[in-house]
Structures are given as C-alpha cells and as structure tokens.
Amino acid sequence: AADVFKGQTRSTSIRVRYSDPENFYKPNIVCVEDSVLIEKYGYQVKEVLGFGCTSKHQARRMGLWMLKTEELDASTVTFSVGLEGALVFPGQVFAIQDELRAGIRLSGRISSSTTTTIVADQSITLPVGLPTLTCVVNDGTIESRAISSVSGSTITVSPAFSSAPLVQAIYSISTLQVNQQKFRCLSVSDNNDGTFAVVAVEF
C-alpha cells in the first residue's frame, strides 16, 4: 500500500545503471562514492536506474547529485507503494502523509465513492482547522475539495469532485495545522512483487 512507511536511509555509495553506447547500449554501471560519508555512516550502497541515460558522464553526474542531495537534505525516506509507484519519476515532487509525524492517520484507500462522498478504509477523526480531502478522480488527475462533514468512515465534500474518485485509490486529508510533507523523488525501483520502492528527500 502507498501509505506503508518502511524506514529512512542515507547512501554513501551510488551505483547508477545506464545504457552504454560503446557496448551496443547494453547495461553498464558507474559507481560514485564519498569516503567521508562512508567513514561516518558506513558502506550504504544504493543501486539506481538512469532512465534514458546513455552517457557514463551523465550517469556519474546523477550519482553525484543523489549523493550530495542525501548528504545535505534534512530528511531522506524509503517506502513501498503499489502500482502508483510506476507513475513516479526521479526529480518529481510529491506529498507524503506520514502518520508518525502527524500523530494521526489521515490517509488510506477509498472503499467506495460518488462525486460528493467517499467511504474510507477507517473511521475518520478530523483534526482542527479547515480540513481538505485530496483524491485521484476517474481521469487520473488529482483534485482537492473542502470537507463539509464526516460520519464514521464517510467523508462528504463541497463542492463536488469533477468525477467520482477511483475506488481503491489513495485519499489524503490535510488541514492548516496538519500539512502533507513534500518530497523530491531520487529513485524508483521495482520490487518484482507488484510494489515499487521509492527513495525521496525532503523538498
């Protein structure tokens, strides 16, 4: 599920896979390391795929960027998602609703929906402060609407969504006091079990 948090990491060695034009575009590896970080955090290897990368120099720059970004940014997260992960690309900025940081679970999956209501996978207790519901609607776009009322696991919004939110898609609730955190995607890898591992840094 997209709301399963798996941990935090900080890499000290980045292995970037790219398509090598000098070897008939077969996969090749460029390894970028930081000896200072290795001494501080140990040997933490991360393997990433350079999407569309056909230059070892470009692959090295990507590895250096990821290494320095993880070193300098305040928070790095790793988590697993379902097929939603196939839509995330390195460099993309997205929001995370973290139950551990917010102190309350405000995201999950939609059990059923109309244009004005969704039935969540849990009973909802709203935090204080102008709550907003964010969902993926039928055409794949993301829309946010003000929450007008909550009864158990049923959330009513106003005005209506342009179309009914997708069943089994992710929903998220935010308020003025409890905001979603924004992260920039560093890498996405296929776990080969129907899920994708995403590594991101705080934006």
How does this structure look, described?
This protein is mainly β. It is built from 3 helices and 14 strands. It has helices at 35-41, 56-72, 99-102, and strands at 4-8, 13-20, 26-33, 45-49, 76-81, 93-96, 107-113, 117-120, 132-136, 142-151, 154-158, 170-174, 181-190, 196-202. The strands form 3 sheets. The chain has a 6-stranded antiparallel barrel. β9 and β10 (142-151) form a beta hairpin. The longest helix is centred in the N-terminal third of the chain and has 17 residues, at 56-72. The protein is elongated and about 60 Å long. The model is unreliable at 1-7 (pLDDT under 50).
Sequence-ordered SSE layout with sheet pairings:
Blueprint: E1 4-8, E2 13-20, E3 26-33, H1 35-41, E4 45-49, H2 56-72, E5 76-81, E6 93-96, H3 99-102, E7 107-113, E8 117-120, E9 132-136, E10 142-151, E11 154-158, E12 170-174, E13 181-190, E14 196-202
Which key terms come to mind for this protein?
203 residues, mainly beta, six-stranded antiparallel β-barrel, five-stranded antiparallel beta sheet, 3 helices, 14% helix, elongated
